[in-house]
């Protein structure tokens, strides 16, 4: 049995999906969190149910890539049951999609989620009346607390198709539209001998034809392209004539707008019947906080202060833990030398431990960063940040919708690039995708923490924040350049739903921290482990040779002339080259080459200006392999991917060199 | 939205007093950072945030004075940022000063100087102070 979860963005579909399947899909309280459909399985009462979580969509007239995914799936795949998740506190807006889903002639269950919020807004819903009005079974739910999940599963297994026979043409009983809708449906049915279109529902297709929906018109042309040309032309002519007569007789200027209005009329009638007012709403903290946090002048400084708080919190709490982990790995290395008699095996193990240990010591930083970000996300503040950023992003040719992928980039660039699917405009999407890797991901954090701890022990939080801000500044400049010289496009209005503010829940933040942090642990156990092994071999071949004469040294030295203006040693250049595999490998490589006395080694090998230019180079140069492959798959263009890769090296080189020159000019060695 | 008259007046004056406190402390810190001896450790961002919180508090005073109760929101955000700043300062004291000092087996005087500094840290003191208006706002009966 295949069940699909569909609904508006930010209604809790992913929370329900996770509760049903036991998955750990990322959930957030801002729209655009899910950009591709996710599949999971659930066994209930010894029956297997395949659950699909679709990206949120406001209607079946999809515009952005993620909305198209949902629409395509809903209209072509025909699941056994569609579970339409609805935000109970925004019934009117959510029912718009429901009216369209009903026309697809599929079994539907409505999940009325977030019922706890309606009470604070001063109303309750007559669920039985709503079910009667729509002729659909309804499950009340508070997904975050897990209530209603079992009821939903029971209903899915015992769904009575005969009892709930959804009416077709639910939108309206407007006689003009109904007449022409039926006429077009009859033409389609007559022509559709192979029944290719039946799965969409002839009435739904007819309505879309009247709305002049280009995707549907192309779909029909595609479906009929192999049929007899004359026959096709005749039927196509009939359809066009019907549209023409419809326009003359209906005197409707824009059919899509008219049908939308008709839908809303009906929705309003239903909403009036089902809403039961319960006194006045309680004090709305959200509207109060929005006054300040989205303030014209104070909004941005408050946001920057919040970022500073996140990084300072991360560094402060992790500092003693890093020291303890360093001690642990140091003892482990000494123990191996003592208890393993074979020198080659001992050296190999110590080498790998040095590499892994160098990166493992920053686990507290990474976990704490994810925890702090999750607290902010859960509070509802990130969505406000997108709203604030809109004004500034507009100046560089983007809009607030680009902010969400960029913010996700603080965690990992790969989901950030995938999240650009929620951006409707192709050029906006390409610009956002091109600049997303400039936003510093958590893999680069160990480099900053390590270098900031050595060179700026008292201002480590500030130094780390400066790196993040540098990434944002370079991203903004790049967006301006791309917008001015490469892509010319129209401005778009940014509309985003702001979630309610809530007290962030420790449990949710801790869970999110563990999910994201465990990705890092897995990566450390696989890619970084293998990379450490590879680096150790390269730093010991030919065997018995001095480190200066090994393969890794030769590679680093070969590139030294290119990096001459920076004055970095070959160890750092080799680390940068290997860092393209994954940014964590930079610290792992330095750990192997320095033999765990990393801080001592770096402080002796670099000056402040060299260290800062190295940090900025790590921030800006070519993204890791995983990111590059996602860029390739999302852009479907090798040319763009290569250009982005080269562009990042050029940007890193120029900015880092400029930074070094400025620092030396200021008298900082 | 109306707030009881007594509470309104009290919150308004708290906004003014706290605004003054935070701004003066922040500016003093910045002056000390520029003119003071280099051994004194002052985080410039922390001082700027203190000034920012001061501005938010003063804004709450101005808005509340014009009988507009949205000023409470400014007071609320000011106290939250103040508390967060104070908490970070406390964490610095606890982790970098106390635990950090202990596990690094640092020189006793260095360890002591860390503790002395973090106890005298204005962010920590102002952060603790911010709990007062925060509690008052929560207790104030806001009528719609």
Report what the structure shows.
The complex is a heterodimer of chains A (669) and B (144). Chain A has 669 residues and is of the alpha/beta class. Chain A is built from 29 helices and eight strands. Chain A has a six-stranded mixed sheet, with helices on both faces. Chain A has a two-stranded antiparallel sheet with strand order 6-8. The N and C termini of chain A lie far apart (68 Å). The mean pLDDT of chain A is 82. A two-stranded antiparallel ribbon of chain B has the order 1-2. Chains A and B meet through helix 12, helix 13 and helix 21 of A and helix 2 and helix 3 of B.
Give a topology summary.
The complex is a heterodimer of chains A (669) and B (144).
Chain A: E1 2-7, H1 13-21, E2 38-44, E3 47-53, H2 65-76, E4 81-87, H3 91-102, E5 108-113, H4 115-120, E6 123-125, H5 127-134, E7 138-140, H6 149-157, H7 175-191, H8 202-210, H9 214-223, H10 229-250, H11 255-274, E8 275-277, H12 285-293, H13 299-339, H14 343-360, H15 363-379, H16 381-395, H17 403-408, H18 413-418, H19 426-435, H20 445-455, H21 460-486, H22 506-538, H23 551-559, H24 570-578, H25 584-594, H26 598-605, H27 608-620, H28 625-635, H29 638-665
Parallel strand pairs in A: 1-3, 1-4, 4-5, 5-7
Antiparallel strand pairs in A: 2-3, 6-8
Chain B: E1 2-3, H1 5-35, H2 44-65, H3 71-103, H4 108-119, H5 122-129, H6 131-139, E2 142-143
Antiparallel strand pairs in B: 1-2
Helix pairs in contact in B: 1-2, 2-3, 3-4, 3-5, 3-6
């Amino acid at each position: 049995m295949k069940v699909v979860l569909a609904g508006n963005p930010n209604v809790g579909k992913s929370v329900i999906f996770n509760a049903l399947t036991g998955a750990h899909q990322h959930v957030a309280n801002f729209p655009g969190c899910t950009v591709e459909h996710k599949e999971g399985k659930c066994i209930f009462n010894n029956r297997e149910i395949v659950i699909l979580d679709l990206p949120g969509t406001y209607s079946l007239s999809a515009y952005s890539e993620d909305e198209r995914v949902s629409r395509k799936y809903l209209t072509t795949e025909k699941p056994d049951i569609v579970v339409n998740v609805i935000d109970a506190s925004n019934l009117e807006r959510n029912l718009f999609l429901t009216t369209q889903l009903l026309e697809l002639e599929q079994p539907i269950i409505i999940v009325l989620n977030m019922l706890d919020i309606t009470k604070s807004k001063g109303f309750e819903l007559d669920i039985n009346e709503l079910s009667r009005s729509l002729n659909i079974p309804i499950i009340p739910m508070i997904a975050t607390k897990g209530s209603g999940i079992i009821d939903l599963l029971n209903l899915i297994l015992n769904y009575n198709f005969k009892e709930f026979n959804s009416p077709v043409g639910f939108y309206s009983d407007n006689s003009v539209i109904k007449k022409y809708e039926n006429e077009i449906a009859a033409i389609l049915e007559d022509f559709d001998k192979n029944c290719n279109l039946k799965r969409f529902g002839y009435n739904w297709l007819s309505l879309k034809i009247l709305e002049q929906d280009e995707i549907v018109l192309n779909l029909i042309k595609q479906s009929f392209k192999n049929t007899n040309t004359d026959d096709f032309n005749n039927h196509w002519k009939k359809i066009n004539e019907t549209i023409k007569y419809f326009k003359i007789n209906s005197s409707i200027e824009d059919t899509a707008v008219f049908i939308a209005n008709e839908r809303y009329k009906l929705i309003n009638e239903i909403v009036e019947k089902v809403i039961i007012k319960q006194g006045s709403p309680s004090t709305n903290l959200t509207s109060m906080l929005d006054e300040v946090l989205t303030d014209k002048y104070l909004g941005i400084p408050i946001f920057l202060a919040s970022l500073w708080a996140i990084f300072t919190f991360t560094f402060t709490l992790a500092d003693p833990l890093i020291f303890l982990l360093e001690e642990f790995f140091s003892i482990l290395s000494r123990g191996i030398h003592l208890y393993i008699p074979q020198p080659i095996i001992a050296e190999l193990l110590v080498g790998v431990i040095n590499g892994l240990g160098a990166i493992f010591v920053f686990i507290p930083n990474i976990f704490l960063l994810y925890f702090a970000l999750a607290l902010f996300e859960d509070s509802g503040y990130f969505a406000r940040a997108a709203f604030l950023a809109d004004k500034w992003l507009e100046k560089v040719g983007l809009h607030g919708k680009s902010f969400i992928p960029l913010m996700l980039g603080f965690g990992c660039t790969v989901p950030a690039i995938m999240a650009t699917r929620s951006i409707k405009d192709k050029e906006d999407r390409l610009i956002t995708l091109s600049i997303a890797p400039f936003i510093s991901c958590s893999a680069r954090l160990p480099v900053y923490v390590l270098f900031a701890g050595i060179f700026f022990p008292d201002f480590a939080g500030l130094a780390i924040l400066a790196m993040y801000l540098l990434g944002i500044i370079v991203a903004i400049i790049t967006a301006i350049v791309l917008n001015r010289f490469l892509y010319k496009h129209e401005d778009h209005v940014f509309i985003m739903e702001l979630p309610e503010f809530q007290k962030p829940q420790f449990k949710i933040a801790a869970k999110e921290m563990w999910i994201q942090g465990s990705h890092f642990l897995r990566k450390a156990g696989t890619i970084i482990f293998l990379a450490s092994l590879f680096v150790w071999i390269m730093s010991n071949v030919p065997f018995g040779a001095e480190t200066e004469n090994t393969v890794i040294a030769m590679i680093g030295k070969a590139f030294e002339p290119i990096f001459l203006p920076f004055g970095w040693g070959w160890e750092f250049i080799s680390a940068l080259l290997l860092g393209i595999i994954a940014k964590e490998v930079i610290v792992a490589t330095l750990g192997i080459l320095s033999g765990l006395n990393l801080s001592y080694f770096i402080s002796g090998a670099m000056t402040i200006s060299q260290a800062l230019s190295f940090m900025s180079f790590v921030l800006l140069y070519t993204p890791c392999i995983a990111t590059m492959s996602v860029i390739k798959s999302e852009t479907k263009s090798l040319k763009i991917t290569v250009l982005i890769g080269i562009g990042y090296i050029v940007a890193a080189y120029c900015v880092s060199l400029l930074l070094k020159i400025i620092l030396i000019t200021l008298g900082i060695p | 939205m109306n707030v009881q008259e007594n509470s309104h007046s009290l919150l308004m004056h708290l906004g003014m007093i706290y605004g003054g406190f935070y701004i003066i402390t922040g500016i003093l810190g910045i002056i000390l950072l520029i003119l003071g001896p280099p051994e004194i450790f002052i985080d410039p961002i922390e001082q700027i945030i203190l000034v920012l919180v001061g501005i938010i508090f003063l804004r709450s005073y101005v808005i509340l004075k014009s009988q507009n109760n949205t000023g409470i929101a400014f007071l609320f955000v000011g106290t939250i940022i103040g508390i967060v700043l104070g908490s970070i300062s406390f964490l610095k004291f606890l982790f970098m000063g106390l635990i950090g000092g202990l596990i690094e087996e640092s020189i006793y005087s260095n360890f002591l100087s860390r503790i002395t500094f973090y106890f005298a840290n204005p962010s920590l003191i102002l952060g603790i102070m911010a709990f007062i208006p925060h509690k008052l706002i929560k207790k104030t009966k806001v009528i719609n």
